[in-house]
Amino acid sequence: MLTCANLNQPWNSTLPTLALLQKCRTLTDVNQIHGRLITTGFIRSQVLTTKIVLTFSPSPFTPLVDFARYVFFTYLAFRSPKQDEDPFLWNAVIKSYSHGREAQEAFIILCLMLENGVPFDKFSLSLVLKACSQLGLLKEGMQVHGLLRKLNFGSDLFLQNCLISYYLRCGFIGYARQLFDRMSMRDSVSYNSMIDGYIKRGMIDLAKELFDVMPLEKKNLITWNSMISGYTQLKDGMGLALGLFEKMPDRDLISWNSMINGFVKCGNMEDAEILFDKMPRRDVVSWANMINGYAKVGKIDLARSLFNEMSERDIVVCKAMMAGCVQNGYCGEALEIFYHLQRNCSLQPDSATLLIALSAIAQLGHVDKGLALHHYLKQKKFSLGGRLGVALIDMYSKCGSIKNAVLVFEGIKYKTVDHWNAMIGGLAIHGIGELAFKLLMDMEKLCVEPDDITYIGVMNACGHAGLVKEGLICFDIMRRVHKMVPKLQHYGCMVDILGRAGQIDVARKFIEEMPIEANDVIWRSLLSACKNHENIDVGEPAAKHLITLDSCNSSSYVLLSHMYAGLGMWNAVSSVRLMMKERNLKKIPGCSWIELEGTVHEFFVQDKSHPQVMEIYSLLDSLSTSNSEVTPYVHHG
Question: Phi and psi at residue 274, in whole multiples of 5°?
């Protein structure tokens, strides 16, 4: 409920009315003031209504913007226009649309002005062009262009620049260049718009041509920074970028950060560090770039050192540090940063930060931490309709809680194909092939278009569950119904399905008939199936072919050795082991882990690094001894 802004001012004064309007946030608040304006007669005051339109049309609060528009169209818009009247009020309303949620309405208002003989100026037209470019309205924008030429506005430099920007935003760079070439006069904005347009489309050579012919006095920081950004996109462009950087008459933070980001992208942290140390001033982007760069090249200790060095951190830097930790396997450290963010009143985690935290939890397998984060998402009313929902389903699946994953999936009202893929992928991890296949059928019924990831997930699930027929149906639907061309991964899934089911000869024939050449992963899948089903006739040639494809991968030799051992071919086993020794190849040790009271314990084969290793081996020995002392019961019938 609103109260009077100033008790010393009577209600028949316009001042408290304007003051109270500024405090309005809801439609109810606005309606109260509107009622008072009507009862006091102030609504007929042109001075007050003009102030309302000018003050509240740019407001961030929708009820106030809507009220300003209502006042304008009801009391001000259609008075008899004077020929030389300034259209500043119309422009204020057009701007409220062109800079807001309903940009297409800006064009309609221009049409209203034309129909009612209301004068307009170049700012009216520029605002409408902005709205058209924002929505990609080609036909409407070209109509405005035609109007400009008809009314002799066409030579106005400001409007010509607006048109260039409009055509570039709509993707018509050829039209923009034609307009640019025909201009009798160009300024920095004209050149910068075209250079930026070329760079955003990767047309660096054309951008350079314009940059080189651009008069030196027209070049400003935006020009130089645009070209540096363009050069950093090129494979070997950092030398050109550095040369330009050194020639710059002035540099700002964008110049320095663009160069550092360029070096980071190509993994050149030495030069990035030199520039970082030389910077006269740094912002959070500078620090985030360096942290991200060190993390990418695996120097997480240097990234952490920089992070700790910062006196003030924002969400961007915390996000970069968290992502770096997760990339390098330091998921616990990433979560520590996240929990610090949660405790910090001034810094609140955003969606991107939450995605990194969910990824860290998924890699650690800490379902309790996942449940706590899920509760936080609910508490803060984050929507699960986008990537957060996908990450949550994935996290629960990887933490072993497929039931919670299904509950999240079923609770999302508007699911994208990514939600379906995450759920199908989770079911594949748990070997629940029947339900994964059912979800694919549900997608068909609900007209949700599957993508190549959907089919990889379903076929993986079918393979783990031994559903050969369903796997073949998936492969058939993908090609015949959705007209999708199978990728190498899809062929690999089919080989895995057939191999797991023991259909070794069919799997080999499938590989031979593939339209694309099978990679080492597919051949290794076939070899693994041969080992499991003791098929040496297919396995031995497959292993030899695999070794020629990838001679440095120890798993191929190990699979072949195990296949020979399973068939008692010990001489062949020795031969394979000797080959591994000669090539200095070692078997990667097996690994298992268990979560106990919130801590994940990891064990490798013959690993004695665990702090409680003596107690563990002692317990295993006692179990082994007690088992050997048990006398087997033999029933004498």
Answer: -60, -45
